Amino acid sequence: MTHFNRGLRLVFMALALLVQLAVPLSAVQAEEALPVLDKIGGEFTLPGPKGKPVSRADFKGQVVMLTFGYTYCPDVCPTTLNAMKMLRKKLGADAARFQVLFITLDPERDTPERLERFVAYFGEGILSLHGSLKEIKTVTELYRARFMKQPSPDGKTYFVAHSDFLYLLDTKGRTRSLFHMDSPVDEMARDVRRLLSEG
Amino acid sequence: MMRISFSPGGGSEPALPGSCRFHRVRGVLVVFLLTGIVACTPKAQNYHGQGGAGTGPMSGHEMGGADIHVMNPWVRAVPPGAGATGGFLVLGKHSLVEDALVRVDSDIAGEVQLHHTVRKDGMMHMMPVPEIVFPAHENHLTLEPGGYHIMMMDLKRFPQPGETVQLTLHFRKAAPLMVRAEVREAPPAQGMEGHSPGMHGGTPGDPKKGAKTN
Questions:
Q1: ipTM, 2 dp
Q2: What chain A residue is nearest to B195 in terms of C-alpha separation?
């Protein structure tokens, strides 16, 4: 009986060793490269703060989170930008190589100054881009983002219905990961770090 | 952000700060029960039906309606010049009486509407709703980002963290409730729980799944 117990203990020890070996193995598997989403995204140039042109190519060597929205947006956009603020905080020193781009879908009401004030409220590292409706549509088509004006029932104002995707671009500007406004910030931080580690 | 935890047809009940469960309680039962009682007491502000600020609690039963209380009321902090902000809270009731939130007044907004953010045709749409129904069989009704919310427009001031905003909730049956909502940048539970991993709503260009109205 004692002999049997000793044998059982050995089996357990062997199992424990296997589990310990398996943990780093699964960690390596989790580090597999993110796929390149080559059908989503592309090069663009839009006027940024003070009207200075901003291109995707300007951010070579940095990881970019690109998103669309508007300043009159009461729910989705503040939630998204707040997530960006939390993400930057979570990234710590890595935030130095991380940039958020917020492109307006409401150029009619979002003046460059208004946009700058809006994004500045959510902390550093968020750049606001604007342009004509035509210029913006070119970019939304590249990123397969959708938006449409939606008049309020009383006709006094309008909202902009829009997709709430966040596009994570690698250091070469390629789209590598997609998030929603309610995606966990931890997952975003993990993917940003994975892309930064690619160089 | 948590997903909409209320659906008119039923669905899962939201986990409230005040709710708790016991699983196979054994051993130091007395101590456990005592701590359990403490844990079950909502830490957040809890408002029961009342006629106005300063008055004592007034049960909705006295008004012939549902007994409604409010938990975790908060209003999103917005930059100066913002066009709108949202108010969020959890309504609770013990009775099996259907009621509805029909109107909200606020000291910071000239215009207050009830809205529902819904993902439709690949976009997030903001749909104004005449009322938010609190079904008879539900104990909780959650207003949260990405779901039902109180939409405040024509802002008289731009709420900042640390401030409070007065909200007066009007119901179809229950007595009006006046609450002071905390101004916050993010929901009280953000980053702690309520997140479901992975993507929601498909990929860009998928009109059937993907997008919100605002």
A1: 0.71
A2: A184
